[in-house]
């Protein structure tokens, strides 16, 4: 297989990964706290020898996340929380602590605030957030202070990775920071709101069309090269 095949196949693999990212983004347009993703391409250049052209190959080497702010939707629920600015809520999962921007919480049977999947919300000290079952009113201040019937109970802290590029998407709207997290010092928590997905449907559909056209162009080239090689082999076989 010659270099043109290797180069195009590598490019096609990257474009396929990009298409999968776009499709996943579109599928999560209505998912609370979702962050859009895209493929990161890198170019590998190698020399082929004296007097020969260099070989350039593009490959998808990772994923990038769009961390821009999503729109805010008013729900009026006391346990719906949205973040304005940087930071993530910290939740406890069976696989360890995870970060999320999805702030839809409800009290469980023990009075602890949990996500729809049952993961406990953690406060600024890393402890579960507890709300007394008999509380008549629950309020959350902009600094994250949670109060029940006017009595402060705890502070819902926000967190961020120690390294900005250390954030890794796990499942759904959950992220992991393998290098650890640190508290966000300045933030605003909004009670009775949820942050929408930050995916722009028009932009994603345009990306899908662009990637699809690029993939189809590469496929046409591979088919043309395949036919060229087959023709060459037929000609050589006929002469021998």
Structural commentary:
- This protein has 2 domains: about 100 residues, no CATH class; about 120 residues, no CATH class.
- With about 240 residues, the chain is of the alpha+beta class.
- The model has no long low-confidence stretch (mean pLDDT about 85).
- It is elongated and about 95 Å long.
- The chain is built from 2 helices and 18 strands.
Summarize, please.
With 240 residues, this protein is an alpha+beta fold.
Indicate the low-confidence ranges by residue numbers.
none
* CA-based shape: elongated
Number of strands: 18
Number of helices: 2
Helix content: 25-40%
Strand order of the largest sheet: 9-5-6-15-14
Q: Overall mean pLDDT score? A: 84
Order of helices and strands: HEEEEEEEEEEEEEEEEEEH
Look at the helices and sheets and give the structural class.
alpha+beta
Radius of gyration, CA atoms, in whole angstroms: 25 Å
Q: How far is the first residue's CA from the last residue's CA?
A: 22 Å
Number of domains: 2
Determine the strand fraction and express it as a percent band.
25-35%
State the major sheet: 5 strands, antiparallel
Protein topology:
Layout: H1 3-27, E1 37-46, E2 55-65, E3 72-74, E4 81-84, E5 89-93, E6 96-100, E7 106-107, E8 113-114, E9 120-121, E10 138-140, E11 145-148, E12 151-155, E13 159-161, E14 168-169, E15 174-176, E16 181-183, E17 188-191, E18 193-195, H2 201-239
Antiparallel strand pairs: 1-2, 3-18, 4-17, 5-6, 5-9, 6-15, 7-8, 10-11, 11-12, 13-16, 14-15
Task: Jot down its keywords.
single chain; alpha+beta; elongated; 27% helix; 18 strands; 240 residues; 2 helices; 2 domains
């Amino acid at each position: 297989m010659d270099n043109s095949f290797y180069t195009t196949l590598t490019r096609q693999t990257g474009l396929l990964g990009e298409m999968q990212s776009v499709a996943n983004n579109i599928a999560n347009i209505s998912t609370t706290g979702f962050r859009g993703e895209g493929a990161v391409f890198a170019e590998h250049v190698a020399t082929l020898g004296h007097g020969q052209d260099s070989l350039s190959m593009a490959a998808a080497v990772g994923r990038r996340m769009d961390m821009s702010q999503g729109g805010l939707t008013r729900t009026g629920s006391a346990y719906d929380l949205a973040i304005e600015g940087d930071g993530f809520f910290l939740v406890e999962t069976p696989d360890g602590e995870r970060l999320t921007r999805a702030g839809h919480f409800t009290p469980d049977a023990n009075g602890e605030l949990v996500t729809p999947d049952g993961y406990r919300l953690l406060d600024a000290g890393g402890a579960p957030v507890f709300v007394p079952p008999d509380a008549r009113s629950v309020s959350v201040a902009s600094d994250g202070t949670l109060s029940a019937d006017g009595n402060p109970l705890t502070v819902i802290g926000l967190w961020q990775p120690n390294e900005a590029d250390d954030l890794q998407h796990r499942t759904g709207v959950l992220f992991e920071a393998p290098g650890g997290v640190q508290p966000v010092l300045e933030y605003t928590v909004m009670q009775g709101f949820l942050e929408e997905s930050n995916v722009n449907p028009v932009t994603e559909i345009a990306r899908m069309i662009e990637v699809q056209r690029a993939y189809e162009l590469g496929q046409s080239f591979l088919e043309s090269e395949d036919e060229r090689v087959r023709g060459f082999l037929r000609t050589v076989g006929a002469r021998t």
